[in-house]
Amino acid sequence: MLLHVHGHSAREAADHLGITPAAVRSTARYARHRLQEALRLDKEGHADDVAH
C-alpha cells in the first residue's frame, strides 16, 4: 500500500515499517502475485480456491 497507493519509495516504506527495502520489495512482489492470482481466479469464478 505504501509503495503503490501512497507513492512511497521502498526506502521510505522500509523506514516507516522498520524493515529493509529488500523486504519491502519482496513483500510487495508477493502481494502483487497473490492479487493477480485472486483476480484471475475470480474472473474464472473460483476465487474461493485461493489459499490464505
Q: Would you write up a description of this structure?
A:
The protein is mainly alpha-helical. It has one domain (10-47). Helix content is 62%, strand content 0%. It has two helices and no strands. It has helices at residues 10-17, 21-44. α1 packs across α2. The longest helix has 24 residues, at 21-44. It is elongated, with a radius of gyration of 14 Å. The relative contact order is 0.12.
Defining traits:
mainly alpha; 52 residues; 2 helices
Instruction: Please report the number of helical segments.
Output: 2
From the alpha carbons, calculate the radius of gyration and give it in angstroms.
14 Å
Q: Unreliable segments (pLDDT under 50, ≥5 consecutive)? A: none
Gap between N and C termini = 19 Å
Task: Compute the average pLDDT.
Answer: 85
Q: How does the helix and strand content classify structurally? A: mainly alpha
Strand content: under 5%
- The helix-strand sequence is HH
Count the beta strands: 0
Largest beta-sheet details: none
Protein name: RNA polymerase sigma factor 70 region 4 type 2 domain-containing protein
